[in-house]
Amino acid sequence: MFRATLAGLRARTARMVLSSIAIILGVAFVSGTLILGNALNQQVHDEFARQAKGVDVSVGISHATNAGDNTKITQDTIDSVRKIPGVAGADARGGGDIAVIKPNGKAASAFVATIESTPQLQEFDLVSGAFPKADNEIGLDERTAKSLGLGVGQKISVLGPDDKPVPLTVSGTYSQGSNSLSLSDMQVLLTPSALSKLDKQSGLYQIVAAAAPGVSQQELADRISAQLGKAFSVQTGDAFTQDTLQHAGQGSGGLTQFMLIFALISLVVASMVIYNTFTILVAQRTRELALLRCIGAERRQVFGSVLLEAFVMGLVASVIGLAAGIGLAALLEKAIGWIDGSATSVSVPMTASVVIAAFAIGVLVTVVSAVLPALRATKVAPLAALRSQLDTHDDVRRTGVLRIISAAVLLLGGAGIIGLGMGLKDQPNATLFTVGGGTMVMLLGVIVLGPLIVGPVNKLLGALPSLLFGVPAKLATANAGRNPRRTAATTAALVIGVTIVTMVTVVANSGKQAAAAQVDKRFPADFVVKSSVYDHALPADLATNLRSNGKIAQVAPSQMAAVNVGQIGDEEATGIDPSAIGTMVNPKMVSGDLHQLGPGTVALNKQAAGTVKLGDQLVVSTPDGNKTLKLVAVYDAQQLTDVLVTLDTLTSVAPKATGYYQILVKVKPGVSTADGQAVMDQATANIAVADVTSAAATKDQLNSQIDSLLGLMWALIGLAVVIALFGIANTLGLSVLERTRESALLRALGLTKGQLRLMLVIESVLMGVMGALIGVVLGGAFAWVLIEALSNPELQLGLAIPGGQLGVLLLAAVIAAVLAALMPARRAARMSIVAGMAEA
Amino acid sequence: MSAVASDVGLRTAVQARELVKVYGRGDTAVRALDGVSVAFAAGRFTAIMGPSGSGKSTLMHCLAGLDSVDNGQVYIGQTDITKLSDRDLTRLRRDRVGFVFQSFNLLPTLTAEQNILLGLELAGKKPDRAWYDTIVDTIGLRQRLSHKPSELSGGQQQRVACARALVARPEVVFADEPTGNLDSRSGAEVLDFLRMSVRKLGQTVIMVTHDPVAASYADRVVLLADGRLAGEINQPTADSVLSALKHLGA
User: Fold this and answer.
1) CB contact under 8 A, A750 and B107
2) CA–CA separation, A458 vs A768, rounded Å?
3) How many angstroms separate the CA of residue B246 from the nearest CA in chain A?
4) Best interface-test mutation with A: which of B62, B67, B81, B107 has the largest number of A CBs within 10 A?
5) C-beta atoms of B122 and A471 within 8 A
6) Is pLDDT at B201 greater than 60 in this prediction?
7) Half-sphere exposure (CA, 13 Å, Cβ side) for B203?
8) Is the pLDDT reported for residue B45 higher than 90?
9) The CATH number of B42-65+85-248 is which of 3.40.50.300, 3.30.1360.20, 3.40.50.1970, 3.30.1490.20?
10) In what helix (H) or strand (E) does residue A449 lie, and over which residues does it extend?
């Protein structure tokens, strides 16, 4: 029996190639994702390990007790450590944000780190020039230097504590290390003393020390600890390394988990293709299997034979898939490096778990998919060896009661789960997963129901081509409908892919619409000027300048400060220009009147108000001042802070909050967006931190973010769709083999080669469109359910059907179906009539 | 023309001249047809007979334009079909030739009626209703027209195939062992029908068979052996055919 199976495998190699491709793609996707995940984790690991490189003792401020509460690392601390015997070198490390002025005159926030003077302790690799040594020098990360267009010896300014530009010289460029995913902002290096001069907020947080030869880490740590006292926590370099690597643990899990979900979908689709292939192969081999049974093979042996075939196929496909996965991972790493402009070294770390996963998945999916067909093979009666007619009732029937019952159970169960999810409105994530899961269960129900659906749908879809192309189309429709179970199984793979694509697309587009609405809500103004650097406020005279411009109708500056509100607690307060109330500041009101906001009054957001009532007197205070204010209004708006006062009131409570946090600007009617932008650019030309955004630009930015996410999803789910199309090509190819005599008969009766090809192409397109159409309808419906589930009074999502994108999807299905039919059609047309008629 | 076997005084429907068909190459080459010249009169029922491997099926395939020839010509009417492109050959089969095969004559996805009309539909022609009714009544399957082939008996399937071959009024009907898969009663029905179509409807029928009884339904039997013409019998009976075959050493 074993030998018969292997001989059969050899004979049917060609028939299995296409279905193997489905498994190969699935395995490649999974193993590629896992390898990429490992590589990224390795990079993060290296990145973190780099911090601990060469460090023998690490000193931080103790958080264990209150001992370190008011402790700071100062130059004195460093000096005292350096004097300890056994210390070969010691340096402070610090970091924070600093405002770098870009060549276009605008400021942007950059992450700043300090450079150690002891070479052994330096955590960065020099690329060109030298590390900064003096306070007027700055080092630029390679990519930052590239994006700024600066090189060694050139000047760049940063904003000092008084918002005045401080010119610095680029001493050199350096590389951050191999991890390019997590570090995407601007990165610069300063000496510790330059950092403390330029940015009072950024502190030194660590001292690292290297031991002199012959001094152990523990010895040195003990000596330093004795010198510095309880306010500092001291650990050995080894312990520091351990700590650091623990942080690295949660490196890049998100991306790989996200990709694994899609890999899983691909595998489900691939398993349907395999299932279908084996079903068809078993059907075609009915006579062969019956002959085996006639000459004494047991049912068990027939079953084993089919499964063995699947096992060998899965094994071969896994090997190829794993190799493809390695290539895929390398390609993705290259792509990631290319996107963020870093020369990432490509590594494909192979672990046993990746290899095991690849083989387990490839072999398991294939064998499990073949179980049902193998069971069917055991039901072949020995007498079937004498039967020759295709499409006997056995093949076509059996869309019976069991199918309807299980479909009903799945559909009702799915609906139930959705209903359950709808009840979880207060937990958006739980709702998303429950409702999403419910729709997937319903999808499964539809798939089970498939054989009953394809008949009518096929008749409906076949009507148009029959009108256009006549007989070949009629024959194609008849062929697509002749074995509903086969057609259903073939299209099911496509249905799954297209349903999910449609769902994601419709939800994303609805989200886009909701986002645009949110932007309108948040941007009652035409332009918003904000500071691009945290804690650098906009100068007050900017508002005055803008007010005097003839094209501007209204200017509403505001400032923010952290305040304490008696009865409520710590809150963020916004001081607004009273003239903006009702126009640019126009939240939904719960009670009271916002127009009463003036000297001595305050308004609260509903969520903060709690038990406080209108007319209550509230003490609003900061360390620098306080006022008792009467509550005159309660509003309900997510986009505003919880406390609203006038600008004057805020200044009296928080005198240190000078300048403006943002300025809302409305242009006069008739002024175009471009003109308005020009006016704004001109007014802010000399203010480095001023960042002008328009409502239109914000919408564009949001949309492009959603679009690129959608693009990624399309690319990921695209693979499942590709696998599904291989399934169509596969089914069609096998059907053509099965129908060799029919094709020959048709040719004999006067069907031209062209018409024969057309017939197969139409059959393929019918299956493709059927799958895509059912998918689009289901996906649309599921998206609607999901949108309903995610909508709440604050975020109303409306169903937005992107006709264009779905049209492209359907068109792509048609084109792909045509492509899928090319090979089988060619083969069918090439077959000689006489040889075809002679085929058993 | 002296080498051409023919019915004197009748219009020729199909004619083969010096037909050569070789399968394989070199040492393994087999001359399935080795210079066959034969003519078939219009309005007559001719049977091609011969032992297995005599080339009778190959001759029919070449005559009908189903297979290419290596040398010689085949005329259907005035057309030399060996010079036609695949497309023209397909059209010729569709418009001017009818076929009945041994088995698997019908598309399983179509009903009996759809199968009968398939050739006409392929040609984009409307059936002549009166002619169609005549044929359907002759095969006696009016009640079963809406049935799929799997719901018909073997004899019924072959009669439907005959009806399909005749409905387009082709110049010639080729039948390749039309009774080979049938019991003798069903076979007789099919042969009666073919003979009737010649006698009453003026159809030309060329049939390949190895069954002397089937051949006895024909007006004339052409005998083939080793790829060459080996004689003919006019107004054959089962016995005359059998003795002729014995003479050939079959």
Assistant:
1) no
2) 11
3) 28
4) B107
5) yes
6) yes
7) 30
8) yes
9) 3.40.50.300
10) helix A428-469
